[in-house]
Structure formats: C-alpha cells, structure tokens
C-alpha cells in the first residue's frame, strides 16, 4: 500500500530520494516469519517507515541530499535504524531534506525540492521536509527526522502533522551525519501524538556509541497519554507572540490556549528575555560546529572525488567546490571565520555565553510552570522560491524553535488550525527529559 501510494503521489510531492522496495519486502517477510514461528510481536510490527537521508542505513544510499554523498553506501546502520528494526518496522526508503540539514524549506536539496502536500506551490518546511511531507501525504505511517534548530518541528507545522524533538541526549546520534553535534537530535514525525509516543519509546535510550547519550531511565511514554491536563501551569512567552508573528498564527495559538483552559490548565504570559539573541547565537554556533564536522568531506574518505587534481590540496579544493551547495559553503565559511584565531573570543566564545543565558531563561520560567507554549513558526508555509535569495529572512523563520534547541529541552509541534488552507503548528515545550508531560498535553489538545 505504501509503495502504491508513493507511485500515485510522489511525482508531485518528491519526498523520496531512494526507495527500498526489495529490502522492505524482505524485512516484512522476515518479521512475518518470526511471528509465525512463535516470536514476540515487535512494538511497531510491520509499520512502514521513512528515514531522513542523513541517518545512515546499511546497504541503502545515504546522501544527505548532497552531490558530495550521491554515491555513499554506508557499511553500518544508525542506532535508531537498528532499534526500529528490532521494533519490526519496515524501511520504505530515504527521505529528501535540505543538504546536510541546513535550511528550512527543502530548497537546499541538491536533487529537487520536496513540495507541501497541502499545496504543491508551497514548501514543506525543512530540513526534514521529505519526512514531514511523506507522512502528510500518507506514503508512510511515520518517519524519522533530525532537528538542530527546528528541522523536525517546523516541517511538521507546515505539513499539518506531529513532530517531536526529544531532549538532547535522549535518542542516540550514532549514525546521524553530524551537522552541529551539540544541537542535533533525532525524533519522530507522525500523524498523531499517540504514534509519536510509540516511536519515541522504540528509539529512546542510552547508547555507548554516542558520547553525549544520556544514561537515564526510559519511562513509559504511551501511559502518559491520560487526556488529563487539569492543574497544568503553562507559560506563554511574550517574545513568541510579538513582532514578526503572523496575526493568523497568533490567533490560532490563543485559541489553543483557551482550549487548554477549558481542559483545566492555566496559562500566563512570561518572558524569555534573551530570545532576541537566539538566532544570531545559533547561526554562529551551528555554523562553527558544521565547519568542523564537514571537514571530513575531503574527497578522500567519503563520497565523490574530483577528477584529475594536480596535487592533494587541489583534490580537497575541487572535491569540496564541486560537492557542496551554496548554503553549505556559506555555513562553512561563516563557521571557519567565527572559529579563527582573533575572532574566536568575539564570536564563538561570546555565543557560548549567550547560549547559557538563553538556557537560564527557560530554567527560570520552569521554576513556576510545567510547560511553555507558543507557535512553532512565525508563519505558515511560504511559496517555493519566495525566500531563496534571502538567507537572513530564511534564518528568522527559526526564531521560535532555535531557543529550545540551544537549551537542549524537548518540544513537540501539533496542528492547531489553518490559515488560507495551510496548516499552523502549536509548539509545546517541556523541561529536560519530561517528554511525558509534553506528550500528555499534546495528546489532550489534539
Ligand atoms: N533551519 C535551521 C538551519 O537552517 C534549522 C536546521 C535544522 O534543524 N537542521 O540551520
């Protein structure tokens, strides 16, 4: 059913980069066989899943939507992929994204842009745009994405589905091609909150292969979905509903808060005073980490190698010039500059300090509140091509998701209405490792 749905819809959506039909049929037969032989039923038995193309899959191309890795056939699978296999999901294929997860519209894919299933003239968001569009179009039951500054939550909002960014360290990053290692997290994109809880259950947990993996007990997420939010205290940051927020988005968020009120929760305006510095801080830190992480793509170790270089330096230069797209080059240059001697203290070190202040803003609010709620993105999806020439405007779309990433805390985007036929997302933010409360509130609301 998944493949026939893809055949019927993907010419216009373009969510997939690689399909895995043979592998999927073999896996399905294997799980079936195991069950018939008296084996245990996997937590996600038989569910067709799509995987973002920056998560490595053994024997299945993993391109990061980059020309650099167009031939990269990994020799191992990411921890999350192994965990999904033991939960008995079937990998349908690999999903389109912004190159190396840098972007918020899918237009930075070096292959083709994915389109929003609600209106194919619009972007699906990004960078996990293929992951969001494939779930919204009913091609897969759920997908995995990665979120560094909003890349699960924002495309989920634009495509009218549920996207969860777990607490930093809850889900292993082993086998996720690194963009900004101190921010990257893998999470589920699903049609509803219950599915999100199930997929999180399957992928969360300590992994010795990831040095930043958190060694914490994994609670039962599904049992948190009680429908009861009575007495929950919600803080609503005034910075998330001010300048630059589309009035229709604001209206939808206020309506959602009223719904929480009618369910017995309370809400109050709060302040996260360093929000105005978050975008600048993020783009310095993420670009710095990216410039370091992407140094491994040198034409020698992975992917495509430039032809006929005169010498070694020329090999690096040519491979990188040919392999990376312009947004990736922009980030590498920005990051290299911010890390260079003489500028490090002024940019990188300063940004690290501001990151701490942003985290403290959240800590202060969470002394008195259980959750923070606001929009996921300032506007609904925009037209394909509308913002490509203007990276700064594109960066400002991340204003509501980036602070959460810098603080390392969990947040979910759930649909909360429409503006001109395009979905709007509500962002529910929780304390570190308190995914249960985040999921409970999201479930009671949806
Ligand atoms: N849009 C942000 C960026 O371009 C976030 C990307 C992400 O979360 N991977 O960096």
Number of helices: 14
Q: Describe the oligomeric state of these chains in a short phrase.
A: single chain
User: Helix share of residues?
Assistant: 25-40%
Major beta sheet, strand line-up: 1-3-2-4-6-5-10-11-9-7-8
Q: Approximately what portion of the residues adopt beta-strand conformation?
A: 5-15%
Total strands: the figure is 11
Computed over alpha carbons, the radius of gyration is 21 Å
Assign the structural class, choosing from mainly alpha, mainly beta, alpha/beta, alpha+beta, or little secondary structure: alpha/beta
Helix-strand string: HEHEHEHEHEEHEHEHHHHEHHEEH
Catalogue the ligands.
glutamine
InterPro entries: Amidase (IPR000120), Amidase_CS (IPR020556), Amidase_dom (IPR023631), AS_sf (IPR036928), GatA (IPR004412)
GO cellular component, one term: glutamyl-tRNA(Gln) amidotransferase complex
Family: Belongs to the amidase family. GatA subfamily.
Subunit structure: Heterotrimer of A, B and C subunits.
